[in-house]
Amino acid sequence: MILTIRTDKPEAEIGLFDGRKKVAYQTWQAHRQLAETIHQKMHKTLSVKGRTLEDLEDVTGVVVYKGPGSFTGLRIGMSVANALAYSLDIPIVATAGDDWIAAGITSILANPSKIPVMPKYGSSVHTTQPRK
After folding, report:
1. Could you tell me if residue 97 is inside a domain?
2. What percent of the chain has pLDDT over 70?
3. Of the residues 49, 51, 67, 78, which has the fewest C-beta atoms closer than 10 A?
4. Which of these, 16, 2, 78, lies nearest to 45 by C-alpha position?
């Protein structure tokens, strides 16, 4: 099973694929509640296969959308994806574009990598100067 995560916009997405076959897919309006809801939605998606977050042995890879997109949304999605890949010792890949899922699954199946992924924000990060 391959878990897919997209968190670059207010509508977030979690998917579960058996090879290239979609097993479960969920979208929701996460907006400012993404950090609070992503694990709940992941749990609900996994439950389609009778799995919970505590019982992830069927997940063999993670595909995450790398951007461009929301700074905070991408950070949350990448953090969850990298943490899952690291803790489960499974491959991870970050992709972009309209066919990000297909490209990610192809990459996971052809060239599995366990190197943490980084977001692509689309431009330089702009921060403000701290107040006195």
Report:
1. yes
2. 98
3. 49
4. 16
